[in-house]
Amino acid sequence: MSNPLTPEEKQILLRLARQALEKGVRGEKLPPLDWERLPPALHAPGASFVTLTVHGELRGCIGTLEARQPLAEDVREHAVSAALNDYRFPPVQPEEVNEIQIEISHLNEPQRLEYTTPDELVARLRPGVDGVVLRDGICRATFLPQVWEKLPEPAEFLSHLCRKMGAEPDLWRRKPLEVFVYQVEEFHEPEAE
């Protein structure tokens, strides 16, 4: 990643995400950010995903691929959305908040991956490095690079991503799809004792 965040900037983002999660779950409005006290890197437009886990199990994950607002605001928005708006899970309840661990993925801009055959697509992917976006018309889905830990085989990874997009798992073999790759800077709260 170009322009990586400093350890201090990462800690600030984790703190902002935690505060947003706590307020959002309680139905409270987020206070305005104190921009004067935030480092310039957090003012810059940034794209992020916020992932919530409980004892290592996914509890919510929402983000964006496009940098459309200041990174600090993006992280806060996605912390609340991951807790309350991930359609795969019921909304996080206040009594769950202390069990949740927050992970933030700061994304670089996705780049189109050119390929001509399904085998070439598989060969061009970098497991553990690339986040992948598949697009077929208006349908689109992404997996963060961390998903390679659970799906290390590129063909299986692509099949699951097609399914997430709402398509048949072998769609990537049957027709050319738009494919984009990106990398992330991933950081998370320390493990609970």
- Quick one: how many beta strands? 8
Secondary-structure-derived class: alpha+beta
The CATH class of the largest domain: Alpha Beta
Principal-axis shape: globular
Name the helicity range: 25-40%
Total count of domains: 2
Q: State the end-to-end distance.
A: 31 Å
Number of helical segments with 4 or more residues: 5
The CATH topology of the largest domain is Glycoprotein, Type 4 Pilin
Q: What's the average pLDDT? A: 95
Approximate strand percentage: 15-25%
CATH architecture title of the largest domain: 2-Layer Sandwich
Our Rg estimate from Cα atoms comes to: 17 Å
CATH superfamily of the largest domain: Hypothetical protein ph0010, domain 1
Q: Unreliable segments (pLDDT under 50, ≥5 consecutive)?
A: none
Major sheet size, sense and barrel closure: 4 strands, antiparallel
Secondary structure elements and pairings:
Layout: H1 7-25, E1 47-54, E2 57-63, H2 71-84, E3 100-107, E4 111-112, H3 118-124, E5 131-136, E6 139-143, H4 154-165, H5 171-174, E7 178-182, E8 184-188
Antiparallel strand pairs: 1-2, 1-3, 3-8, 4-7, 5-6, 5-7
Helix pairs in contact: 1-2
What can you tell me about this protein's structure?
The chain folds into two domains: 7-108, Glycoprotein, Type 4 Pilin (2-Layer Sandwich); 111-182, Hypothetical protein ph0010, domain 2 (Dna Ligase, domain 1, 2-Layer Sandwich). The mean pLDDT is 95. The protein has a four-stranded antiparallel beta sheet, with helices on one face. Strands 4-7-5-6 form a four-stranded antiparallel beta sheet, with helices on one face. The chain has helices at residues 7-25, 71-84, 118-124, 154-165, 171-174; strands at 47-54, 57-63, 100-107, 111-112, 131-136, 139-143, 178-182, 184-188. The protein contains five helices and eight strands. It starts with 6 loop residues before the first helix and ends in a 5-residue tail after the last strand. The protein is an alpha+beta fold.
